Amino acid sequence: MARSCCPSRLTRSRHSTREKQRIVTVSFSKPKSTSSLRDKFEATNLDICLIGVVLALYNNSSHVVDAASDFNNSGLGGNNTSHSNATYGSSFVDAPEDLSPYAILFPWFVQILAVFIYYVTTRYFRALPYTALVFILGMVVGYFTTGYGVNAISDSASLWLKINGQVILLIFLPGLIFLDSFTINVHLFFQAFWQLIIFAFPMVLGGTALTAVFAKYVLPYEWSWNFCMTFGAILSGTDPVAVAGLLNALGAPPRLHMHVSGESLLNDGSTVLLFQIFSSLYYYEFGIPHFGDDISWGDGIKIFLRLALGGAAIGLAFGFGTVLLIYLLNRRLSAEENVIQVVSTICSAYLAYFASEILCNSSGIISSLVCGLTVKVLGQTLINDYDLTLHFWQVTGQLLNTLLFALGNIVSVNLFTTTEDVYSFGAKGCGYLVLLYAYLIGIRFVLVFVLYPLIARIGIGANLSEAVFMSYAGIRGAVGIAMSLSLRANVFAGRLCTCNVF
After folding, report:
1. Ordered DSSP codes for 155-170
2. How far apart are CA 465 and CA 448, in angstroms?
3. CB proximity list for 36: less than 8 A, separation 6 or greater
4. pLDDT tens across 103-149, in order?
């Protein structure tokens, strides 16, 4: 009986094997006969051709509309042939030179110089910090662009320095803040949260007030209190770009790393909030049209809460939306979807900032910060290729930091090289700059050690050696430079508006 059953089993197994082969053959042959329209587009690049045709038709129609409007405005044509020729684009000989294409030169010129600096420092001069040399690079580029007449690089740099102050913040802050929040150790961050709140708000407010006192009573510039507080807000934030690299290289304990990076993450938001409030008062005092407002202390507190809470709510909304998109793009073996996940993170960072800052009059920096933390906490395990996302944001941070430092140092070089008395810095100003640096380090020590008894007993704790390191590590960086460039751009734009009005 046992032997008689064997042939039937073999027969059934052969039939099942043939059936599986037939099914597999059918399943693989089916897509070949019914290829999708999308595959045909990708195979022939027809989608790119169609996009090009649409753009060409739109460009041509816009020229026709411009020509028709110019024809009507010129009195049914008349003899105004030169204007119509310029409209159709047949001759631009008499038109002034358009320098806008030069805007692309400066950022990439600075980046390639930064690449050479990185190579030299990592191979031959390891004791020199990269960020310090980028600082010197910006000064050298600024000197050659301002001291050697007009050239392509100076034209490009001047275009970047003329950007609106709000646009400067929109370019740099969302990427830098999202990077800091996305790369932070979430577990330690929530353990040290109340410590970081103390670092971010009481310490920042104290640093702003003490720096304003120095600017008011020591510096010889006779600044108003509103501008002194704005100046203090710019200098009260910390930036761990250089310190974080040193901590990683030396293998510092995670607690110290969290104190430095977590403080920087939260006090970026508090410094920008204080900057917005006091710069608004200064713009109003300065008489710049369409800038600033007369804010009382009660209104200032209300604005602070609106900026902070409104920005946090908008950041949460964009963060949840981004996590949902990441969840839906869950094909881990699809390289295309991995890239789209990265694209969704950068879109959410900049759109959250724009929606909060421009559309809702809240804090864009708080919005980007909360959005980044939400994506980090809820979406990290859903990201298909976390290394790809992390490396993309590290590249973004490298590009933004390098360009921002270079722009800030070009402005500082202009202060040293200009011949106009109202803008010149001089040797006396350099002396006050050194004194200010020593004062900032001093008040940093005072603030850290005044709050040390409380800091050491809550959160993840702290010891004396870490407190000393944190006092020295409280350097100023990218966010402060972005705020100062924004202030400079708004003040010069306001002066131009004032001159045009009067």
Report:
1. HHHHHHHTS-HHHHHH
2. 12
3. none
4. 888 889 888 988 988 888 888 877 777 777 777 777 777 776 665 55
